[in-house]
Structure to design on (280 residues):
């Protein structure tokens, strides 16, 4: 184990409510959607930013600052990557909405999902376990405690004062200075950046009677493959903070069949009626 100066980045996806009416189909689709969005975030990070681990619906990343290196330039590069993966998250979210003809609650509320990024720098204990590196120490705790904060928004970038001073912040934007009370740590001064400019409206979701696009067929294949793995217990339930951590059994095959029967009887007539009204 060694202690090094480390920049830490925590990207957190949130938005699905814990009280969502989670039928089995909804739950399985929600798990795939969040995994898809996390993958978009991870795919848009590059060296020197390294993924430490996935923590439910969050990705914990870091950069080690070596002695003699240009720490400010590295911090600014990290900010560039954070901006890139936020854009990638939003682009993937729009793609999922635009192609999705499923009418389950999870698919209908994709637009509620938001991303937040937390950035901090400080001395961190790095423990190597085989090919993985685990980060520990008070500064690693600080960035995680900041997840529970009093910021009155769903989408933002939070920098601790230490990271803000190192990086200089986001060019051309003025952050809000706040102090967050972190359990077991005490007051932590932070700078908060909120989205600027007007966000483009989300694309309309296609009618369930629209012919499925190639993108939706690929998504539906991922839904099915995930369902099979979960029910056969070949894949553990993902620990997503905003979804029930449910264990599925072979009995859930019948639950899914029943839910689809209910969907056919209740949802399709309403969707057909709405479709005909729009056609007039």
């Amino acid at each position: 184990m060694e202690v090094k100066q480390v920049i830490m980045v925590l990207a957190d996806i949130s938005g699905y409510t814990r009280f969502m009416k989670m039928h089995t189909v909804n739950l399985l689709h929600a798990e795939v959607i969040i995994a898809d969005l996390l993958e978009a975030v991870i795919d848009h990070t590059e060296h020197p930013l390294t993924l430490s681990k996935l923590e439910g619906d969050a990705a914990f990343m870091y950069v080690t600052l070596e002695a003699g290196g240009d720490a400010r330039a590295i911090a600014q590069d990290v900010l560039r990557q954070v901006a890139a993966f936020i854009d990638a998250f939003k682009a993937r979210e729009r793609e999922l909405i635009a192609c999705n003809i499923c009418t389950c609650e999870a698919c209908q509320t994709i637009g509620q999902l938001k991303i937040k990024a937390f950035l901090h720098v400080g001395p961190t204990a790095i423990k190597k376990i085989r090919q993985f590196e685990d980060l520990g120490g008070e500064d690693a705790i600080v960035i995680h405690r900041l997840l529970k904060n009093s910021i009155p928004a769903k989408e933002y970038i939070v920098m601790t004062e230490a990271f803000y001073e190192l990086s200089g912040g986001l060019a051309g934007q003025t952050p809000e200075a706040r102090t967050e009370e972190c359990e077991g740590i005490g007051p932590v001064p932070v700078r908060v950046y909120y989205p600027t400019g007007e966000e483009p409206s989300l694309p309309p979701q296609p009618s369930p009677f629209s012919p499925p696009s190639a993108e939706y067929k690929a998504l539906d294949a991922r839904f099915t493959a995930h369902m099979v793995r979960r029910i056969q217990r070949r894949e553990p339930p993902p620990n997503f903070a905003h979804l029930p951590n449910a264990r599925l059994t072979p009995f859930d095959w019948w639950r899914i069949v029943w839910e689809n029967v209910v969907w056919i009887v209740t949802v399709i007539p309403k969707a057909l009626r709405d479709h005909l009204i729009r056609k007039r």
Observations:
- Residues 1-280 form a domain with the Alpha-Beta Plaits fold (CATH 3.30.70.1230).
- The first helix runs from residue 24 to 43.
- The chain has a mean pLDDT of 85.
- The radius of gyration is 21 Å.
